[in-house]
TrEMBL record:
Catalyzed reaction equations: RNA(n) + a ribonucleoside 5'-triphosphate = RNA(n+1) + diphosphate
The species this protein was found in: Anaerovibrio slackiae
GO molecular function: DNA binding; DNA-directed RNA polymerase activity
Functional description taken from the UniProt entry: Promotes RNA polymerase assembly. Latches the N- and C-terminal regions of the beta' subunit thereby facilitating its interaction with the beta and alpha subunits.
Name of protein: DNA-directed RNA polymerase subunit omega
SUPFAM superfamilies in the record: RPB6/omega subunit-like
GO cellular component term of the entry, any: DNA-directed RNA polymerase complex
Pfam families in alphabetical order: RNA_pol_Rpb6
Complexes and interactors: The RNAP catalytic core consists of 2 alpha, 1 beta, 1 beta' and 1 omega subunit. When a sigma factor is associated with the core the holoenzyme is formed, which can initiate transcription.
Family under the similarity heading: Belongs to the RNA polymerase subunit omega family.
The protein's enzyme class: transferase
Keywords on record: DNA-directed RNA polymerase, Nucleotidyltransferase, Transcription, Transferase
Database matches in InterPro entries: DNA-dir_RNA_pol_omega (IPR003716), Pol_omega/Rpo6/RPB6 (IPR006110), RPB6/omega-like_sf (IPR036161)
Length: 71
């Protein structure tokens, strides 16, 4: 079993909740899978969710909290 880097302890301080992190990573992973936006981080994995989490850790993916959801 491979360990995902960055791990949850490194990512949690970058967002306001784990739910936000999961939602943000899932949305970004779908963008990568659909090829609507290219990967901005150096690819260290073939898994789209891992690449999304690396982009979040590097600060290349951000979010804005709205009353109707995350944008």
């Amino acid at each position: 079993m491979n360990i995902v880097t960055p791990n949850l302890d490194q990512l949690t301080p970058l967002v306001d909740s784990r739910y936000t992190l999961v939602t943000l990573a899932a949305k970004r992973a779908r963008d990568i899978m659909d090829k609507s936006h290219p990967v901005t981080a150096k690819r260290t994995s073939t898994r789209d969710v891992t690449n999304a989490m690396e982009e979040i850790y590097e600060g290349k993916i951000t979010y804005k909290r709205l009353t109707s959801g995350i944008k």
